Amino acid sequence: MTQKMAITLDVNGTGHEIRVEPRKTLCDALRADCGLTGTNVGCEHGVCGACTVLMDGVPVRSCLMFAVQAQGKALRTVEGLSTGGKLHALQQAFTDNHALQCGFCTSGFLMLAAGTLEQQPDIDDESLREVLSSNLCRCTGYQNILRAVRQVRDAGKAGAR
Q1: Would you say domain 89-157 falls under CATH 3.30.450.40?
Q2: What are the boundaries of each domain within the chain?
Q3: From residue 141, how far is each of 72, 103, 150 by CA, in Å?
Q4: What residues in the chain have per-residue pLDDT under 70?
Q5: C-beta of residue 157 within 8 angstroms of C-beta of residue 121
Q6: Span 47-66, pLDDT tens digits
């Protein structure tokens, strides 16, 4: 029997003191121990991207990380995108552009896009398409997702963030 470790996860600016087995994934800890169920568990192999969160501003697959590896890092989940009840520009753009259907992959795409646009606000279309292709969606055909992210990128270039 593995002994649980006490760790603190800094998620969306809030400290979550939890006890986890050393092998518990970050994704499972976020959902079960922090009560943040917006991060979805898909393939559990790092392929689909449904579990994408930001760690120190960088998109990571939370199913491939242990929760203990995230201690001392700033984590942001889809619950941390909106502020004061107002949707983040990406969330609004996904709605406006019908960039979701079943919604299972949406939180992963939102976090991937948020991290990418924060790191590379002037990302070109070809690179953006390449980045977004790392996440899987079985419903939308990707074009509306790409359109939504481009809309936010282009609004940022115009100073309308």
Answers
A1: no
A2: 5-80, 89-157
A3: 37, 13, 16
A4: 1, 159-161
A5: yes
A6: 999 999 999 999 999 999 99
